[in-house]
Amino acid sequence: MTVRGLRGAGGRAAVTAAAALLLGAGTPVQAGAGVDDPPWPGTPGTGTVPLPGTPGVGTVPLPGAGEIAGGLPGMGTPGEAAGGLPGAEAPDDAVGQPSGAEAPGDVDASAAGVRSFRDEFTGPAGSAPSASKWKQLTGCMWGRGAEKQCYTAGGRNARLDGAGHLVINARREKYVGADGVARRYTSARLVSRVARAGGTLRVRAKLSRRQAGAWPAIWLLGTPAAKTPHYGEIDLMENGLNGAAWDPEYHVHTSGAGSGAGGAYGVDATRWHVYEVRWTTGPSGRVWFRIDGRLVRVLPYRVPSGSPAEVILNIAVGSQAGRPAADLDSTMTVDYVRVGG
Hints:
By secondary structure, this protein is mostly beta strands. It contains 3 helices and 20 strands.
C-alpha cells in the first residue's frame, strides 16, 4: 500500500510489507487453523483493563442472562463472562438480521470503574443521533485539506431511519461553510462522548455500493488527538482506500515500529457484518480483530498505559479514497455500537 498519514492528524500512516515484518506478535492468526484464541492479558502495571470476574481486580456481577458487565447483549457464554475473547455471535448477528430490541441502559459504571457505552439508534425517522452520546464535528478543512467533505451537524448527514439504525451519508451537493466558501460535498463525523482505555468495541454495520472517493470508517482514536499517533489509533473498519476493491480493512497506528499494519477482512461490505476489536494499552498492549465472531488477526498496540480512546463513525471524501465520483452518494448504516469490558 502507499504511504498514508494518520487520519486523526489528517491522513494515514504507511502500510508496507516491511512494516508488517517488524511486528513479530502481529503474525496473522487464522481461525480454524488449529490455533486457539490468544489469552486475554492481565499483567499488572501494563495498563490493561480489569475483566469482569477476575479475582482481585474488582469483580463485576453479571447483571442478567445474556449480558456481561457493561450491558453487552448477546455475550453470555461462560467463556465470555470470565473475560475470554467473544465467541460466536448471537443467531441474529450470525445471519445478518436486525439485532432486535434495545437492552436496558446505555452507559454503565462498573464496580471496577470501567465505563461502558452503547447505542442501538432507536428513535423516530429523520432525527439526529443522541447528543448525549455523540458529538458531531463540523467544518470543511479536514485531512490537511486533502479531504473534500464538509462535516455537518443535526440530521443533515447523520440521521436515524426509524427502524433502529443510524445512517451516515456522504453526498455531492453545494454547501457553503462557515468560512463563506462554497464546496461540493457534505458528510458527518460522530465522536462518542465516552472514551475507554481498553475493552471491546463491537459495531454491526453495512455500506452502500463502492463509489470512488468515499472513505467510510469505524475507528478508535486515542486522546488527546492532538498528540496522535503517540496515543494510538485503531481502524476497526475502513474502506475505499487507494482505489482498492470494496473490501473493508483493519489497521493499527502508533508512534512505534510496525505502525500501519493491518489487512482486509475479505467480506462483502454491502452486507451486514459485526466488526469487533478488543484492545489493551501499555508496553504489552495488543489488539484482537474479529469479523462476525471469527478471529482474524492479533497485533501489538504499544501506547501509554491507561490512555483512553474515543469511537468515531464517519465517511470522508477524497484524499486516500481518490477523486470523488460525480454522482457521489455513499452511506454507512449502523445497527448498533457497543463498548464494554
